[in-house]
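Hey, can you fold this one?
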Amino acid sequence: MRKETKGSRRQAAASPSRKPAPARRLQVTEPGELLEFLLVKLAPQGRNSIKSMLAHGQIAVDDRIEKQYNHPLRPGQTVTVSKTRSSASAPLVGLRILHEDDAVIVVHKDAGLLSIATAQETELTAYRQLTAHVRQADPKARIFVLHRLDRETSGVMMFAKSEQIQKKMQDNWKDVVTERKYVALVEGLVKKASGTISSWLKETSTLKMYSSPVANDGQHAITHYKVLRASRNYSLVELELETGRKNQIRVHMQDIGHPIASDKKYGAKTKPFSRLGLHARVLAFEHPTTGKPMRFETDIPKPFLSQFKEEAR
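Sure. Predicted structure:
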């Protein structure tokens, strides 16, 4: 028989009556950002502790869970600090939120995840997961597509949180988006260190894009490239889009005789990995409501770099 100690009796007696600590409600009296506000109000709690609380859904602004540390606050708002972690957040699969505010969501999409479903594809997508994410706070919330990445392309992409923001950004895309860079692992040694590829893109009945030999026949596409690393078998190329046409980079790399690794559809003969050798590395834009310049840069995928390590041995 288990011996009952004085301490265990005390613990047993306390457990049934234990109630969760009440949430703290803090009034905002001047403009600022959420993390800085919490650092002052919750002192001496540290920055990492408060970021953890944000990540676990313990902070709400006007009763809406807010996880972004730089969320802007206005006088008159109420910030609620809960002692219990939210269990409502479903984990995102193949997707990581880089930034979220009232106007846009910027994410990193893994290779293999669809951006948005087509009529034939109804599986898990970035769009579907982010819709579920915003509806945790507001069941009527929606997100709107601004641009897409191919299923096997990884990297930075962005969605709007209202139809008005979507229209405003898409109507002025060339002015709003100030930088859009990709990196690609392409087949062969690209001898010219940098260059520009310009062509007129058309689509076949089988939905494959190609460069028309006739000027002004199709959509004009311009890609600037710069070689970052090169070896006998592969080159790592940085690409900047002046236009954003469907499969533009894939067609243009094939056009110069250096198709993207693993891209059999557009002429690749090698498959060093199961994904496409294309990554959307940089996205910079002017914020649609604040006008503030925003820039997001991600790492070059390790499988791209590992091709050069192997050849160096």
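The chain has two domains: 21-81, 95-312. Let me know if you want another pass with a different chain boundary.
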